[in-house]
Design brief:
Blueprint (H helix, E strand, L loop, with lengths): L18 E2 L13 E8 L5 H10 L10 H4 L2 E10 L4 H14 L3 H6 L3 H9 L11 E6 L2 E10 H6 L3 H7 L3 H10 L1 H8 L5 E9 L8 H15 L4 E7 L3 H9 L3 E5 L11 E7 L1
Parallel strand pairs: 1-3, 6-7
Antiparallel strand pairs: 2-3, 3-4, 4-5, 5-6, 7-9, 8-9
Helix pairs in contact: 3-5, 5-7
Length: 275
């Protein structure tokens, strides 16, 4: 579900002068991770770099920088990489997925949602698997996440990994599923040839640096590479800012789900775009 993040579009480095982060070169590695250079402001830069800049300028970390300094451009390298099959990435996925879904995952699985989702993430062959996740990183720190899959992948998905990971908590998961059935049944429909953008979210301290747009670009590339003809996503009906962003990217509302009372998000708009 793509209803949670409030993402602001950024821009690529235009060659203007700025303070560079280490390893500020654009490259494609053997693991197909792609590094992108972004121009941001100090207030949006990664924490290691803000600390270095603060020391250089004679200010201790944690104190506000002068207004004239906060307006200086900073170059930040962002790498988009495929998720790894490990618990660390699984827990990061759970947290970002919950942000994207306005707390839906936490509502379904309870306080152990990170542990439960992290375990399910390790198994292949389902919608929450590591196979369908990419992370944006800056200086080795995860700054955002995007998840999605083709209609064919979704048709093969099963719920067993999530229920096994939940253990006794699966009773709560099933109860939540039943309460949200009208919403989930709507979201579950994915025509052949579609690629579903399941979730996209950016860490609060990185918003406004263009990372959300970068992740959406990556999703479109993944969809095209999978042979999809159309991109689809669901956005909460009351999430005006995200819906406007998707509209600027050429997506249009195709349908609106029935309302599911007591469920975070409640109702969603299905938005699509021909690739």
């Amino acid at each position: 579900m793509s209803g949670g993040p409030r993402i602001s579009a950024g821009r690529y480095d235009d060659g203007s002068p700025g303070y560079g982060c280490p390893k500020s070169t654009s490259q494609r590695s053997s693991t197909d991770a792609i590094t992108h250079r972004r121009v941001v402001r100090i207030g949006k830069v990664c924490l290691p770099c803000s600390g270095v800049l603060a020391e250089l300028l004679g200010h201790s970390v944690g104190k506000a920088l002068p207004a004239e300094v906060s307006r200086l451009p900073v170059v930040m390298d962002v790498t988009v990489r495929q998720a790894k099959r490990d618990r660390g990435d699984g827990e990061q996925f759970a947290r970002y997925f919950d942000i994207a879904g306005d707390g839906l995952l936490r509502w379904m699985a309870g306080r152990r949602f990170v542990d439960i989702t992290g375990k399910a993430f390790l198994e292949p062959g389902h919608d929450l698997s590591y196979e369908h996740v990419w992370f944006a990183e800056s200086q080795g720190v995860v700054a955002g996440m995007v998840s999605g899959y083709s209609a064919a992948d979704h048709a093969r998905s099963r719920n067993g990994p999530l229920f096994r990971a939940a253990g006794v908590q699966s009773i709560r998961v099933v109860a939540a599923w039943l309460l949200a059935a009208r919403l989930f049944n709507f979201m579950d429909r994915l025509p052949e040839g579609d690629w579903y953008l399941q979730a996209v979210a950016v860490g609060e301290e990185y918003r406004g640096a263009g990372i959300g747009s970068l992740l959406l670009d990556h999703a479109e590339h993944a969809a095209s590479a999978a042979g999809a003809h159309r991109l689809a996503l669901d956005v909460a009906v009351d999430n005006d800012s995200s819906r406007r962003l998707y509209e600027r990217r050429g997506m249009t509302i195709e349908a609106t789900s029935p309302s599911a009372p007591f469920v975070p998000g409640g109702s969603v708009d299905r938005m699509t775009k021909v690739l």
